What we know:
The structure is a single chain. The chain has 218 residues and is α/β, with parallel strands linked by helices. It has ten helices and six strands; from the N terminus they run αβααβαβαββααααβα. It has helices at residues 2-14, 27-33, 41-55, 88-97, 108-125, 144-155, 163-180, 185-191, 195-199, 206-217, and strands spanning 18-22, 78-84, 100-104, 131-135, 138-140, 202-204. Strand 3 (100-104), helix 5 and strand 4 form a beta-alpha-beta unit. Helix 5 (108-125) runs parallel beside helix 10 (206-217).
Amino acid sequence: xxxxxxxxxxxxxxxxxxxxxxxxxxxxxxxxxxxxxxxxxxxxxxxxxxxxxxxxxxxxxxxxxxxxxxxxxxxxxxxxxxxxxxxxxxxxxxxxxxxxxxxxxxxxxxxxxxxxxxxxxxxxxxxxxxxxxxxxxxxxxxxxxxxxxxxxxxxxxxxxxxxxxxxxxxxxxxxxxxxxxxxxxxxxxxxxxxxxxxxxxxxxxxxxxxxxxxxxxx
Length: 218
């Protein structure tokens, strides 16, 4: 309810539809930064997505939730519900409740696999598959600082299940093993080749970036 109230407040302030994106994030972000226990993340994501999708729709003056004496004082946010997904349970949640599923820092090969899982999950849920989007780093004719920024964002994914396998298969096994040993980000950055940036992003000259966009779209 607080998430949707926040979205409705922003929509009222800016005068345009506002969507909501949901994801489980990492143990480091949830527990170290936010100070919350990251327990049952897949179940909480499913429960939250279902509730948010229901609350995102409704008319002014209606009960905020069924049976409540509190009425809606703002129009519904009007935007889509997005679920960031990678694992099977999160994909099932996106297929059942989301208007869009988001992939974060993935290769075209992973997109192909995850697209198939999304389509299958949507069929099981009896819904049309939601739109699929990918959040990718991009740099056209990058300077060294741009590549370093992208590589530093990749470092945090080296120990994440699924991502670690992808980077190992792409030839970056040394960085993956070092990450598993608990090495710090600077040490990982030192051994991660610049080619890793183009494995999960749009990096290179204009023609290379266009070809990469075409590969993701396909």
